[in-house]
Amino acid sequence: MKYARALTIAGSDSGGGAGIQADLKTFQELGVFGMSALTAVTAQNTLGVHGVYPMSLEALENQIDAVAADLPPAAIKTGMLFNSDMIELVARKVKEYDWNQVVIDPVMVAKGGQSLLQEEAVEALIEQLLPLSYVITPNLPEAEALVGMSVQTIEDRKLAAKKLHQKGARHVVIKGGHGKEGDQVIDLLFDGENFTEFESQRIQTKHTHGTGCTYAAAITAEIAKGKSVKDAVNTAKQFIQAAIEHTLEFGEGHGPTNHWAYNEK
Ligand SMILES: Nc1ncnc2c1ncn2[C@@H]1O[C@H](COP(=O)(O)OP(=O)(O)OP(=O)(O)O)[C@@H](O)[C@H]1O
Ligand SMILES: Cc1ncc(CO)c(N)n1
């Protein structure tokens, strides 16, 4: 097959920089056929989230079933899952279809601070979805919420990664975008045995809307193509670095990243 297929289960960002839109653009740029199951529609731009409109459970289930029945994906990504009922449904579907290349981006809050996951749902995420993940990609605040400890230093991150692995995640990538390393951004991969650090120059910009979605989507695309997790994270790191560096300067607030940049550089 010339093109692998990947499915994103996530929310729509009307502003086009995060969510389903970021995922599909990233899949396309990395040569993977993208498919989607929407959990919620958000009214969103670079200034913030202006409204959240969840889909019904029936609508979410029907989208997943339609894709699974006719277009089975090589890899799955989850983003905004909104509430515990949706998490339970997605976990049930992952088991039903025996999907084992599942990348979970445990989206909790948007850059502007608005909640994209109800607080009561964090437990469901830990109990039901995390054990089904091939890769989980928390940022630092998400890692703190998932393991219940402060996650700042590299040593904290290593301990948090071990705890998430113990809870059932096959690979853990702790993203360093919110870290305080000064000039560097360090993402940490743990595969259950070894740690690998992916380091890059921190770019001084406010245009980082959707970095997490784009990064996890790039990991998913590479896994769909049959790459190892380590190679997938390496490519994703280069993809996101290019996307942040070659800024688009769109909007009055936190603008989107440049999904073309990786292929144009
Ligand atoms: N200023 C920056 N310069 C370079 N790389 C960055 C910067 N900010 C984030 N990154 C990279 O972007 C990716 C996403 O990291 P981050 O921790 O920002 O995720 P996130 O908080 O989930 O993003 P978002 O909530 O905006 O979707 C990581 O690979 C991280 O290293
Ligand atoms: C729909 C959606 N998903 C994820 C994020 C996190 O960046 C966002 N801002 N919007």
UniProtKB/TrEMBL annotation:
Pyridoxamine kinase/Phosphomethylpyrimidine kinase domain: residues covered: 13-258
Domain of life: Bacteria
One GO cellular component term: cytosol
CDD domains named among the record's database cross-references: HMPP_kinase (cd01169)
Enzyme kind, highest EC tier: transferase
Record PANTHER family: HYDROXYMETHYLPYRIMIDINE_PHOSPHOMETHYLPYRIMIDINE KINASE THI20-RELATED, PHOSPHOMETHYLPYRIMIDINE KINASE
Pathway the protein acts in: Cofactor biosynthesis; thiamine diphosphate biosynthesis; 4-amino-2-methyl-5-diphosphomethylpyrimidine from 5-amino-1-(5-phospho-D-ribosyl)imidazole: step 3/3; Cofactor biosynthesis; thiamine diphosphate biosynthesis; 4-amino-2-methyl-5-diphosphomethylpyrimidine from 5-amino-1-(5-phospho-D-ribosyl)imidazole: step 2/3
Documented EC number(s): 2.7.1.49, 2.7.4.7
Biological classification of the source: Bacteria, Bacillati, Bacillota, Bacilli, Bacillales
GO biological process, one term: thiamine biosynthetic process
Gene: thiD
Enzymatic reactions: 4-amino-5-hydroxymethyl-2-methylpyrimidine + ATP = 4-amino-2-methyl-5-(phosphooxymethyl)pyrimidine + ADP + H(+); 4-amino-2-methyl-5-(phosphooxymethyl)pyrimidine + ATP = 4-amino-2-methyl-5-(diphosphooxymethyl)pyrimidine + ADP
The protein, known as: Hydroxymethylpyrimidine/phosphomethylpyrimidine kinase
A single MF term (Gene Ontology): ATP binding
Classification via InterPro entries: HMP/HMP-P_kinase_dom, PM/HMP-P_kinase-1, Ribokinase-like
Keyword Nuclease: no
Family recorded in the similarity comment: Belongs to the ThiD family.
Keywords: ATP-binding, Kinase, Nucleotide-binding, Thiamine biosynthesis, Transferase
